[in-house]
Design goal:
Helices cover 75% and strands 0% of the residues. With 89 residues, it is mostly helical. The chain has one domain: S15/NS1, RNA-binding (Helix Hairpins, Orthogonal Bundle), CATH 1.10.287.10.
């Protein structure tokens, strides 16, 4: 359920704030969202994979903490990010 290098680079390029940005909150949330999506698909077919389910819950918690951080720092950036990623209807 890891992201390949090309996928990571594509996500970084689409969410980075400046040319050398690889670890901003926006990039981290985008990468976590992609990993969560892939792991959710995996768990649809492998319902007894409890270790992966625990990892999924940890990733969801981390993404939630990062989103609450960015919401407190810059609410407009938060709104743009959730719209761009397509989470939270």
């Amino acid at each position: 359920m890891t992201l390949e290098t090309a996928e990571k680079q594509k996500l970084i390029e689409s969410h980075q704030l400046h040319a050398t940005d690889t670890g901003s909150v926006e990039v981290q949330v985008a990468m976590l969202s992609e990993r969560i999506s892939k792991l959710s698909d995996h768990l649809q077919g492998n319902i007894h994979d409890y270790s992966s389910r625990q990892g999924l819950l940890k990733m969801i918690g981390k993404r939630k903490r990062l989103l609450s951080y960015i919401k407190g720092k810059n609410p407009q950036s938060y709104q743009d990010l959730i719209k761009k990623i397509g989470i939270r209807g």
